[in-house]
Amino acid sequence: MLEETIKLLEEYNFSISEQREFLKIVHPIISHPEFIKRCDNKVYPHHGNISLGEHIIKDALITYKLIKTKKKYQKANLNIAVLIAMFHDLYELPWQNSPNKKHHFINKHGFVHPIEASINAISWFPKYFKHLPTANIIIDGIIHHMYPFPVRRIPQNISKIEINNLAKYKKLPRKYQLLITKSTNNLKFLNLNWSKSIYLEGKVVSKADKLVAFGKELRNFKALQACITGRLKRL
Ligand SMILES: [Fe+2]
Ligand SMILES: [Fe+2]
After folding, report:
1. Which ligand is nearest to the CA of 46?
2. Confidence class of residue 104 from pLDDT cuts 50, 70 and 90?
3. Cα–Cα dist 235/232, whole Å
4. Alpha helices in the chain (DSSP H)
5. Is residue 43 domain-resident?
6. How far is the CA of 209 from the centre of ligand 2 (A)?
7. Exposed site from 4, 52, 146, 188, fewest CB < 10 Å?
């Protein structure tokens, strides 16, 4: 995935020093087998012919650029924000072939995938979650990345939320289960949580995610610049 990432960095006009800084953060993640699996657009297609892995990397690239160029986000911790972006959609199964057709509406992919992603991120990349205050920021950012779209609230009985990696959740140390649960319970209505991330790092990833998903123009640096400067109003 390194080659593809470098290609994207060049496409988005990252300088050599920016490329180095970005790759230092993401390299351990893009070389993980679970991430590599998600870079095959036949197995994990995302939007159009873009793979889930490519979508995630683009989100991280834009997160990086937003922090470097937007005053609003300049106080965000770059490292933590890029990590949130790299983890935000590491859900269990491709959403197009999701077996959860019979799931209750509020347990559909759109509402529960941030919970699955946080569980997978902690399970596959435990070293980033060792420092609990940092883990809290990362988890909160993953959980609320879909904002203003809500996320499923975790009820007392976790089995009710019909996630695809429940067994993995049950194996997590209690401190992480509590952080995930707490994050989904701060602004609840109709068993959904409507809050944005309370941390700047989470907010910038959520913004980047919208820009990637809705901005088809973001295939080159000019378009990226346009969305950062806000000159393309439709973005
Ligand atoms: Fe998502
Ligand atoms: Fe996303």
Report:
1. 2
2. confident
3. 6
4. 2-11, 16-30, 33-37, 52-69, 78-87, 109-124, 132-143, 166-171, 174-183, 200-214, 221-229
5. yes
6. 5
7. 4
Q: Looking at the CA of 52, name the nearest ligand.
A: 2
As a whole number of angstroms, the distance between CA 124 and CA 142 comes to: 15
Distance 149 CA to ligand 2 centre (A): 12
The pair of structure tokens assigned to 188 is 């609840």
Count of domains in the chain? 1
Name the closest ligand to CA 59.
2
> Which numbered ligand comes closest to the C-alpha of 146?
1
d(CA 111, CA 107): 6
Residue 123 falls within a domain, yes or no?
yes
pLDDT of residue 43: 80
Give the number of the ligand closest to the Cα of residue 207.
2
Q: At what angle do helices 132-143 and 174-183 cross, to 10 degrees?
A: 40
Note if the pTM is more than 0.85.
Answer: yes
Closest ligand to the CA of 58: 2
Of 27, 87, 31, nearest to 63 by C-alpha is: 87
Q: Compute the distance from residue 233 Cα to the ligand 1 centre, in Å.
A: 23
Distance 113 CA to ligand 2 centre (A): 10
Q: Decide if 192 is inside a domain.
A: yes
In a domain? residue 234: no
Tell me the residue type at 180.
I
- Inter-residue contact 199 to 67 (CB < 8 Å): no
Give the domain range for residue 52: 2-229
